[in-house]
Design brief:
heterodimer, A: 299 residues, alpha/beta, flat, B: 0% strand
Chain lengths: 299, 195
């Protein structure tokens, strides 16, 4: 009887600790945070091409807008996160995904929490769109940034299909329903329609930069460089596209200063997915199927 | 022996229990115990890292901790067989006594108290006594070490001194070989000089 009681107590202890440890394993950052209680700087990483869906997995080749937005919302919700550093190392990506992230960043800033962008190797196009929705932009002097413009790329494979003996038939409800099809050349009217779309998106990009960099760059100056050109961080500083030069730690320090935190305050990664998330995301069939599906606007 | 008797015996009456296990030799049950203890410890260690490591390491631990832990689990199972084999061989060579099946069984069960180390550390860390947690974990480690020596003694029918010698001999040999390899490397490695 005594033996059974001892074993039962042991099993009970292990079960209790097992449940508690599972909580920590499933969300280590929150658990760690519960230990300190003090104000922290949240780090949100935007790495690789910005997409509307997860496709990078372990390779880390893309940033999923949903995941980034979830991290931004977490930063807004959590009381202990007093400031956010957006670490961007991206050449751009989907215009919609960039806009969605930008909108969420604007909401975060409305809560009074300062957001600082730290540019890595590149923070261009869609990456720069996102940066414009932050309070302060720190770039390295050789960071590649700018590339303010919109592009839509279509492939005309009509000749190839002909050689392969493939003839695609389109049964459509309207004359432009198969606009952008790879099986035929664009008509002039279709080309103009798509050009109008690109122009409209471009105008939205200009508006975003002018709103985000208000008082730091005027429209004439912006138009002189908003032709898709890439700039170094130093050049961008001269044009007023960024606020200061420095590395990641300078950006963290700036965020701490803006939030009134001391320099010993904790820095937490907010979009660090756990091992199982990465594994599942990396093998997602959905992400493979959605890669390169149809023409879309890119910043 | 029932499972309850084995667990209770290993914890509170280790010598007689290991002797009994060496005679009964429930190898499958022993290996299952070893695997379960290692796997459960891995879960607790992962949770412990999430609690005691600085936040900047959590990303790495979240991604790689399970991978390293899994590799460590496989490695520990391999090491169990290596330890059994080496100890059996040395016992045969030195003391002319050998019982590999009993030794494998006893060594498998000897890790049982090890299941307490990480959860105790975790529980004390949760209460803010991380140092005490580490110390408890260390004591459990010593406990397992003592049980491994007892396993050698009971499974191979040695006296305590012989069992200790058998336990430390491979470690000493490894240290000597490692030292010699290091010396050899230092002698043959072309060292840049500033003079």
């Amino acid at each position: 009887m005594g033996k059974k009681v001892v074993i039962a107590a042991l099993v009970l202890f292990l079960l209790l600790m097992g449940i508690l440890s599972l909580r920590t394993v499933l969300n280590p950052s929150k658990q760690a945070n519960a230990q300190d209680g003090a104000g922290s700087v949240g780090i949100i990483r935007v790495e690789g091409t910005i997409t509307g869906t997860a496709s990078g997995g372990w390779s880390g080749l893309s940033s999923d807008a949903d995941e980034i937005m979830a991290a931004i919302r977490e930063a807004a919700r959590r009381q202990d996160i007093k400031a956010v550093v957006l670490r961007v190392n991206s050449p751009g990506g989907s215009s919609v995904a960039s806009q969605e992230i930008g909108i969420e960043l604007d909401k975060l800033r409305k809560t009074g929490k300062p957001v600082v962008t730290s540019m890595g190797d590149a923070c261009a196009s869609g990456g720069y769109w996102i940066a414009c929705s932050t309070d302060h932009i720190v770039a390295n002097s050789t960071t590649l940034t700018g590339s303010i413009g919109v592009i839509m790329e279509l492939s005309n494979l009509e000749g190839l299909y002909g050689k392969l003996g493939i003839r695609q038939e389109a049964i459509k409800s309207g004359q432009h329903k198969d606009m952008g099809s790879s099986a035929r050349e664009l008509s002039d009217e279709e080309r103009q329609l798509l050009q109008d779309m690109v122009n409209d998106s471009y105008q939205q990009f200009l508006d975003q930069v002018l709103a985000g960099r208000k008082g730091k760059i005027d429209k004439a100056k912006l138009l002189s460089i908003a032709d898709g050109r890439v700039l170094t961080g130093k050049q961008a500083l001269d044009y007023g596209l960024v606020d200061s030069l420095g590395n990641y730690y300078d950006a963290v320090k700036k965020a701490q200063e803006m939030a009134g935190l001391n320099q010993d305050s904790q820095v937490q990664e907010l979009n660090n997915t756990n091992f199982w998330d990465e594994l599942i995301k990396g093998g997602s069939l959905r992400s493979v199927l959605e890669l390169g599906s149809g023409p879309y606007l890119k910043y | 022996m029932t499972s309850t008797e084995i667990i209770y015996g290993i914890l509170f009456q280790p010598a007689s229990t290991l002797r009994g296990l060496g005679e009964e030799r429930p190898i499958a049950k022993g290996l299952l115990t070893f695997f379960l203890v290692s796997a459960i410890s891995l879960l607790f260690k992962q949770a412990l890292y999430g609690l005691i490591l600085p936040a900047k390491f959590l990303d790495l631990v979240g991604k790689m901790g399970w991978v390293f832990g899994g590799v460590g689990l496989v490695f520990s199972i391999m090491m169990l067989f290596v330890m059994t084999g080496v100890s059996s061989l040395l016992s045969e060579l030195i003391f002319h006594k050998n019982n590999a099946r009993a030794l494998l069984c006893c060594l498998s069960f000897s890790v049982l108290p090890g299941i307490l180390g990480p959860p105790l550390y975790y529980a004390l860390a949760l209460l803010g006594h991380q140092g005490a947690g580490w110390f408890c974990s260390f004591l459990v480690g010593v406990w397992v070490l003592v049980l491994q020596v007892l396993s050698l003694r009971e499974a191979l029918d040695l006296d305590t001194g012989q069992a200790i010698l058998l336990y430390i001999l491979p470690i000493m040999v490894m240290i000597v070989l490692g030292g010699l390899a290091f010396l050899g490397l230092m002698v043959t490695f072309p060292m840049p000089a500033l003079n």
